[in-house]
Write a structure and sequence with these properties.
- There is one protein chain.
- This protein is an alpha+beta fold.
- The protein has six helices and 24 strands.
- A hairpin with a 4-residue loop joins strand 14 and strand 15.
- Helix 1 runs antiparallel to helix 2, helix 2 runs antiparallel to helix 3 and helix 2 runs antiparallel to helix 4.
- The longest helix is centred in the first third of the chain and has 53 residues.
- It is rod-shaped.
C-alpha cells in the first residue's frame, strides 16, 4: 500500500479506537449506566451513610451560653464519597478533554491533508475523462498504467467522505466535554467541595474547636439510655465485667468475674475483641472470695466487697497484692439490704467523673440507700449522704457526675426511677426507660471514659449508650 494510504489507515484506526472508547467510557463517567466510578482497579460505591452523631446538648440555665456539642464520626472526610467521587469525575473529564484536544489538533492537521488530496484526486479524475476522449493521442501502455492507479484511488473517495463526518463528530465530542466540565464545576462549587483538601482541613479545625468546647463541660445529667449492644454471651446468670475508666486510650483491658459468690478468679483480656473471641491474657486468683456483682476497676486496681462482711478490698492487678482494706461502718451485708434480685448485692462499689463511691444501706437510715464517697487509696469515707429510697426496692444503681441513678426493678419494664444529687443533696423522681432485652439485670455500672453503661443481663454482657445534658462553664463561673 502507498504511504498516503498507510497514513490514512492509521488515522482511521485511531479514530475508530477513540470513538469506541468514548462510547464505552463517557456514559459511565456521567452516570448513565452505573452509580459507581472506577478508580484504578477498585470500585468505590457511594454510601448513603454520612453525617454527624449527636454527642450531647449543652445549655447555661442563666442564658449566658447556649451550644450544642456534636462529635463527627471518625475520618468523616475519608467517608465523604460524593465529594471525593465528584472530584475524581472532574479530573477524568479534564483528562479526557485534554486527550480530545490533542486528537482534535491531529485530526485538523490530517484533515487539511485529506482535503488537499481530495482536490487533487478530483482534478486527476477530470483529466482522465479528457484523456479518455482523446486516448488515441497517447500510447496505450502509458494510458493503462494511469488507469490502474486511478482505479486504486477511486475507493478512497467514500472513505474521505466518512473521514469528514468523523472529524465533525470529534468537534462535537470536544464541545460536549467542555459543557460537561462546566456543569461538573458548577455542581462542585454548589456543594462546597471545590477544594477537597480545604474541606478536610475545615473539619479538622471543627473537631479541635469541639474538643475545646467539651473541656468546658461540667458534669452532665442523664437524659436518655439507648441500646443494648450485645457484646458476648457467656457465664452464669449473674456476674460482672468492666474496663478501667482511668486507663489510657491504648489500654482497653477487660476484666470478667463470673457469679456472685464462691469465686476468686478474675479473668483479664487485652481488648474487647479478645474478650469476644475468648483470648484470655491473664488470670488472677484473689486472696478472698467476693460478694455480689458490684465490683469496680479504678486506676489499675480492683475494688470489691469481701464475702460475708462489710469489708472493702483494694487489689492491685500490677502487684497482685491487697493494697488496702476497710470496714464500711454500719453497712448491711450478706443479703440484709440487697437489690431486688438478691445475690449478696448489699454493697455496690462504683466510679464516675468525680471519683470512687460506695452505695449501701444501714439500720441507722432505716434500710434506705446511703451514698459514700471514698478515698481511692485508703478507702476512708470522705463524705456520706442519706437518701430516702429503700435499698431493697432498687433494681440496680449507678453514679454519673456525682448523681446516683436508681432503677425500680431488675426485670422487664425496668426504668431509672429515682436520682439523688450529692452536689445539691436533693432528689427527684425520674422516668428514663431502657430495654431490658434479656429480662434479668444483675449488674449495671457507668464507665466515664466510654460514657456507657456496662451490664450483665442474664448471662449476656451488654452495653447501653447514655445521652447527657450538660451545663457550659463560662469564664464568669467560680
Amino acid at each position: 500500500m502507498s504511504p498516503p494510504l498507510r497514513k490514512l489507515g492509521a488515522v482511521l484506526s485511531t479514530m475508530a479506537m477513540i470513538s469506541n472508547w468514548m462510547s464505552q467510557t463517557l456514559p459511565s463517567l456521567v452516570g448513565l449506566n452505573t452509580t459507581r466510578i472506577t478508580t484504578s482497579d477498585t470500585l468505590t460505591q457511594i454510601s448513603p451513610k454520612e453525617g454527624w452523631q449527636v454527642y450531647s446538648s449543652a445549655q447555661d440555665p442563666d442564658g449566658r451560653c447556649i451550644c450544642t456539642v456534636v462529635a463527627p464520626e471518625q475520618n468523616l472526610c475519608s467517608r465523604d464519597a460524593k465529594s471525593r467521587q465528584l472530584r475524581q469525575l472532574l479530573e477524568k473529564v479534564q483528562n479526557m478533554s485534554q486527550s480530545i484536544e490533542v486528537l482534535n489538533l491531529r485530526t485538523q492537521r490530517d484533515f487539511q491533508y485529506v482535503l488537499k488530496m481530495e482536490t487533487q484526486m478530483k482534478g486527476l479524475k477530470a483529466k482522465f475523462r479528457q484523456i479518455e476522449d482523446d486516448r488515441k493521442t497517447l500510447m496505450t501502455k502509458h494510458f493503462q498504467e494511469l488507469k490502474e492507479k486511478m482505479d486504486e484511488l477511486l475507493p478512497l473517495i467514500p472513505v474521505l467522505e466518512q473521514y469528514k463526518t468523523d472529524a465533525k463528530l470529534i468537534t462535537q465530542f470536544k464541545e460536549e466535554i467542555r459543557n460537561l466540565s462546566t456543569v461538573l464545576t458548577g455542581i462542585q462549587e454548589e456543594i462546597g467541595a471545590y477544594d477537597y483538601e480545604e474541606l478536610h482541613q475545615r473539619v479538622v479545625n471543627l473537631e479541635t474547636r469541639l474538643r475545646d468546647c467539651m473541656k468546658k463541660l461540667t458534669c452532665g445529667k442523664l437524659m436518655k439510655i439507648t441500646g443494648p449492644i450485645t457484646v458476648k454471651i457467656s457465664g452464669t446468670r449473674f456476674g460482672a465485667w468492666m474496663t478501667d475508666p482511668l486507663a489510657s486510650e491504648k489500654n482497653n483491658r477487660v476484666w470478667y468475674m463470673d457469679s456472685y459468690t464462691n469465686n476468686k478468679i478474675v479473668r483479664e483480656y487485652k481488648s474487647i475483641s479478645d474478650f469476644v473471641s475468648g483470648a484470655e491474657s491473664r488470670t488472677y486468683n484473689l486472696p478472698f472470695k467476693w460478694a455480689g456483682t458490684n465490683h469496680v476497676v479504678y486506676n489499675g486496681s480492683l475494688y470489691f466487697n469481701k464475702y460475708q462482711s462489710n469489708i472493702i478490698i483494694k487489689y492491685s492487678f500490677d502487684t497482685g497484692r491487697v493494697l488496702a482494706q476497710r470496714s464500711l461502718e454500719y453497712a448491711g451485708f450478706h443479703n440484709v439490704y440487697p437489690y431486688t434480685w438478691g445475690g449478696f448485692s448489699d454493697i455496690d462499689l462504683m466510679a464516675d467523673e468525680i471519683g470512687l463511691w460506695a452505695v449501701y444501706a444501714t439500720n441507722q437510715n432505716a434500710g434506705n440507700i446511703v451514698i459514700s464517697q471514698l478515698n481511692q487509696d485508703t478507702l476512708e469515707v470522705l463524705k456520706s449522704w442519706s437518701t430516702g429510697y429503700p435499698k431493697r426496692s432498687a433494681g440496680e444503681s449507678f453514679m454519673i457526675c456525682g448523681t446516683l441513678y436508681v432503677t425500680n426493678s431488675h426485670l422487664t419494664g425496668a426504668k431509672v426511677y429515682y436520682s439523688y444529687s450529692t452536689k445539691t443533696s436533693t432528689y427527684e423522681y425520674t422516668d428514663i426507660p431502657f430495654h431490658n432485652q434479656y429480662f434479668h439485670i444483675s449488674m449495671l455500672d457507668y464507665n466515664a471514659r466510654d460514657r456507657a453503661l456496662y451490664a450483665w443481663n442474664n448471662g449476656h454482657q451488654v452495653l447501653f449508650n447514655v445521652t447527657l445534658f450538660h451545663i457550659i462553664k463560662t469564664e464568669d463561673d467560680t
